[in-house]
Amino acid sequence: MNAEKRRKKRLRNLVCIVYCSLQLLIVLALFQGMGSLLHKLVPAGIDLSQIEGKIVAVDDEQENTETIDENKLIVCLDAGHGGKDNGSDYRLRYEKNDNLKITQAVAAYLADKEDVQVIMTRSDDTFLSLEERTTFANQNNADYFVSLHRNTGEGNGVETWIRSDADDKTQALAKNIMDNLDAAGISRNRGVKKGTQKSESKDYYVNLHTNMPACIVELGFMNSPTDNQLFDANVENYAKAIGDAVLKTYEAYGKDGADATESVEDVPGTEEQISTETGEGTTGQVLQNTQIENVSSLDATSHDWGLGSHTDDENRPLDAVNAQETYGKYNVYFIGDDTKDIYLTFDEGYEYGQTESILNTLKEKGVSATFFVTEPYAKDNPDLVRRMIDEGHVLGNHSVTHPSAGMPSLSLDKQENEVTENHAYIKENFGYDMYLFRYPTGRFSEQSLALLNNCNYKSIFWSFAYLDYDVNNQPDHASSLQKMKDKLHPGAIYLLHAESETNAAVLGDFIDAVRAAGYGFKNF
Question: Max alpha carbon distance in the chain (Å)?
Answer without folding.
Answer: 106
